[in-house]
Write a structure and sequence with these properties.
Blueprint: H1 2-6, H2 10-26, H3 30-43, E1 52-61, E2 66-72, H4 76-84, E3 94-95, H5 102-109, E4 113-115, H6 119-122, H7 128-138, E5 142-149, E6 154-162, H8 171-245, H9 253-283, E7 292-295, H10 296-313, E8 317-321, E9 329-332, H11 334-351, E10 357-364, E11 368-375, H12 382-385, H13 411-421, E12 425-431, E13 435-443
Parallel strand pairs: 8-10
Antiparallel strand pairs: 1-2, 1-6, 2-3, 4-5, 5-6, 7-9, 10-11, 11-13, 12-13
The structure holds adenosine-5'-triphosphate and magnesium ion.
Enzyme class: transferase
Organism: Candidatus Falkowbacteria bacterium CG11_big_fil_rev_8_21_14_0_20_39_10
GO molecular function, one term: ATP binding
């Protein structure tokens, strides 16, 4: 290795630099990179044998406005110098305004320089006497200071301290050092970027972890709050029902109107609390599906009977189309699926104007049953259809003649989750002002 430096050859120089560059660029951790920079030139390029003893990398800290010592080579002279220093190596900061310091000069002039007098590179923060004493103790004759550049600016310096005179440094050594310090700039920048990304990703991981914890807390809060709300609200609803239907005195029309509104509002609140509770269970994976084989058309018959009166009030032609002799067997949770269809038919009733039509139809195939709930209501724009199954997905109907309807926009989200837990599917087909069809496929087994 020494050979090609004593008898320099362009190709070998380039190869040596390339080896060192690869070593440095392959290292990602910032501390490892700067250490291989200061050690590499002595050991990889054999400069130790050429009288180079201490290599130091110092970088600008823009915030503190100082040139900070970052890394020092691991040689016995370096150990001696550090031991003799009145302050730890990493604290030897030079203020950027210390214009007499040679390192700062090199930094500002962007040109290399040298000195045979250590106070030039160590004052401040050292006193000239202390700097000189350390130099003598270590036995350094010359220090060669080179700028470390990136494409945009000079970011620091490298100090090479030798046990020989400046005049003994060959042109090839100089050239190699200058080529090397050019790579250093790039390597330092890469390592800094990598460390920043690492740090950011570490912070993101922590933040994400915290968010997950908060999410669990939120779900627990929603779950407890909903439970606590449900009991008193059910009591209110029962007493309101008694007041409306079982009052010993005849209610004045005005009072009856107030009580009716209170009753409906309480019903809506209970519905909302139940939905919130279901969403919270879904999100905590706490929802339980009790699977049994049953005829889904019977469930829809119950939903039909329950909502028939609302359809009549709106003069809606409401039909349940099923083959009486057929059974439409599915494997699933009767109660949860009933909630799904209560919502689908409930939606159809809300968004279909008076004198419209709502139809529930069944189809059987080898895998299971298909249930379609169709209406002749407002319809849903193509661009809104993808939002439907998300949480709080109320659609703006200002583009239609239909007015907005009560609801929280949780029903379809819950429906989709329940159907997915059954390994089924739910899809929508819709045309504005013509109507919508929600189709559910449920497996038989
Ligand atoms: N048959 C339909 N026709 C037109 N729009 C519909 C129909 N079904 C659902 N939508 C639209 O999708 C939105 C979401 O429906 P979803 O059932 O999730 O919520 P909601 O009925 O508003 O409230 P919730 O069901 O929670 O009480 C509705 O607000 C409505 O804008
Ligand atoms: Mg709904």
């Amino acid at each position: 290795m020494l050979d090609y430096i004593q008898k320099p050859h362009q190709k070998q120089t380039v190869e040596a630099i390339w080896r060192l560059e690869k070593l440095i660029l392959d290292t990602l951790d910032f501390n490892d990179v700067v250490q291989s920079i200061v050690d590499g030139i002595l050991h990889e390029l054999g400069f130790l044998k050429l009288g180079y003893r201490i290599v130091v990398l110092a970088l600008v800290n823009d915030e503190k406005k100082v040139l900070e010592r970052i890394a020092i080579s691991q040689t016995k002279e370096a150990v001696k110098a550090v031991e003799a220093s009145p302050m730890p190596f990493q604290s030897i900061d030079i203020p950027l305004r210390a214009n007499k310091n040679l390192c700062i000069k090199v930094l500002k002039d962007h040109k290399f320089s040298y000195t045979e007098f250590w106070p030039d590179i160590l004052c401040p923060p050292f006193t000239p006497e202390k700097a000189k004493a350390i130099q003598e103790k270590v036995g350094i004759k010359t220090s060669f200071v080179c700028p470390v550049r990136t494409k945009q600016k000079t970011i620091g310096v490298m100090i090479f301290s030798l046990v020989k005179e400046f005049s003994e440094i060959s042109e090839d050594e100089k050239e190699l050092i200058l080529n090397f310090t050019d790579i250093v700039g790039l390597a330092v920048q890469n390592a800094k970027l990598y460390s920043t990304v690492e740090e950011a990703s570490h912070r993101l991981k922590k933040a994400n972890h915290r968010l997950k914890e908060l999410d669990v807390l939120k779900d627990e809060f929603v779950s407890i709050a909903s439970h606590e709300l449900r009991t008193p609200m059910t009591a209110i609803k029962s007493y309101l029902w008694m007041a409306i239907n079982k009052s010993p005195q005849k209610l004045s029309p005005q009072l009856k109107k107030y009580l009716d509104i209170s009753y409906q509002s309480t019903e809506r609140l209970i519905h909302l609390v139940n939905d919130m509770l279901t969403v919270s269970r879904i999100e905590r994976n706490k929802i339980e599906i009790k699977k049994e084989q049953f005829d889904i058309s019977e469930t829809l018959q119950l939903v039909y009977e329950e909502l028939k009166i609302s359809a009549q009030e709106k003069n809606i032609e409401f039909t349940l189309l099923k083959d009486k002799d057929k059974k439409y067997m599915v494997l699933g949770d009767k109660e949860k699926l009933r909630e799904v269809f209560q919502n689908l038919v409930g939606n159809a009733l809300k968004f279909t104007p008076n004198k419209g039509k709502i139809t529930i139809a069944f189809k059987k195939d080898k895998d299971g049953v298909q249930i379609a709930v169709s209406d002749t209501g407002s319809g849903i724009r193509k661009e809104d259809q993808s939002k439907l199954f998300k949480k709080f997905s109320k659609i703006d109907y200002s583009y239609t003649k239909h007015s907005s309807q009560p609801g929280t926009g949780l029903g379809l989200y819950i429906s989709k989750q329940i159907i997915s837990l059954h390994h089924g599917s739910i899809t929508v087909q819709s045309e504005v002002e013509k109507g919508s069809t929600f189709t559910v496929n449920l497996p038989q087994k």
